[in-house]
Amino acid sequence: MEQGEDQEVQARLLDVRRRVKAAAEAAGRDPNSVTLVAVSKAQPLERIEAALAAGQRIFGENYVQEAQSRWPALRARYPDVELHLVGALQSNKARAAVELFDVIQTLDRPKLAQLLAKELSRPQARTRRLLVEVNLAEEPQKAGLPPGELAAFLTFCREELRLPVVGLMAIPPAEEDVAPYAALLAKLAARFGLKEVSIGMSADFETAIAFGATIVRVGTAIFGERPPRAAPP
Ligand SMILES: *Cc1c(COP(=O)(O)O)cnc(C)c1O
């Protein structure tokens, strides 16, 4: 990669960090109460290296296999990296995910909760924290629990399975104002005594912070546009 692109990633990362801090301060919140997850799915390795060189250590990935193909080697050089799974988790990838990710943000069904409980008890398990994904607008094509099922699911996860659930995550409808969704997610998290509220992406992370996000997941604003995936053969 050209030196220029490397510097671009670093400049964008600094700008996003500055905006996260400003949004937290404007909302009267401690900037350290907001975690920036750099979502590197589908990004070329060179851009991830540039963010690592600029000091970023918390990254998000959507696909278990893609993350497996690059993070073990990067972790050998940057052992303090913290990896979050922010994409849907298929049951047959649960073991691999638990061995690779520090945080799984997409717990969304009882069967997966049971599987994770089993996998988390193995010595190879790395995952320490889980977030439950909520389908706030109850969009039929989307993952996540409807808000009405949250109470029973959280009781099952926390009391029966003893899972380390620390927060809620949502992907609100595209093209809509994130504000009411962030406020609702924060309200639900508070109601259930959960600290983390994961909402807000490149287009709207400042608004999400103003309405209570504690984790923002930012991809293109840091790394630039994702290159198109290779066409299937
Ligand atoms: C891709 C993705 C992001 C980051 O999106 P950008 O618009 O690139 O910031 C955040 N969260 C999830 C779940 C994603 O899939």
Description:
The chain has 233 residues and is α/β, with parallel strands linked by helices. The chain has one domain: TIM Barrel (Alpha-Beta Barrel). Helices cover 42% and strands 15% of the residues. The chain contains nine helices and eight strands. It has an eight-stranded parallel β-sheet with strand order 7-6-5-4-3-2-1-8. Helix 6 links the parallel strand 5 and strand 6. Helix 1 crosses helix 2. The chain is globular. The protein starts with a helix and ends in a 10-residue tail after the last helix. The mean pLDDT is 96. The structure holds pyridoxal-5'-phosphate. The site of pyridoxal-5'-phosphate (PLP) has 13 residues, from strand 8 and helix 9.
Task: Give a brief outline of the structure.
This protein is an alpha/beta fold and about 230 residues long. The chain has nine helices and eight strands.
Q: What class, by secondary structure content?
A: alpha/beta
- Contiguous runs where pLDDT drops below 50 for at least 5 residues: none
CATH class: Alpha Beta
Helical amount: 40-55%
Largest beta sheet, briefly?
8 strands, parallel
Overall average residue pLDDT: 96
The name of the CATH superfamily reads Alanine racemase
The count of helical stretches stands at: 9
The CATH architecture designation is: Alpha-Beta Barrel
> What is the H/E order?
HEHEHEHEHEHEHEHEH
**How are strands sequenced across the largest beta sheet?**
7-6-5-4-3-2-1-8
